[in-house]
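Z., the sequence and structure:
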Amino acid sequence: LFYKHILKPLRVVRPAPKADDPAPHLFAQGVGALFLTVSSLALFAGASLLGWLLVGVVVALAAVNLFLGFCLGCFMYYQLARRGIHADLPWWRAPQGA
C-alpha cells in the first residue's frame, strides 16, 4: 500500500518492467515450494535438522536472488532445457496468437 499510494504517485520510484519468459521463474517458485513442503514434512516428522536445513537453503537462495540478481532455479531451468528436458507446464506458455 505504501508503494502503490505514496511512492509511485510521488514518482519517488519509477518501475521499469521488462518483458520476460515467466516459465523459468515459475519453475524456480515450484522448486522453492517443493523444498518448503519437504521441509514442513520433515519438521512435522521430527527430523528437525533436515527441515531447518532445507529452510536455510531456500532463505539463502532467495537472498542470492535479491542481492546478486542470480536465480538458481532459473539457471536450473535453462540447463535442463539445454539437455532437452522441458520442465514447464502447458498453462505457463503464452496462448497462441497473443
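The chain has a mean pLDDT of 88. Residues 27-89 form one domain.

Let me know what you think.
H.
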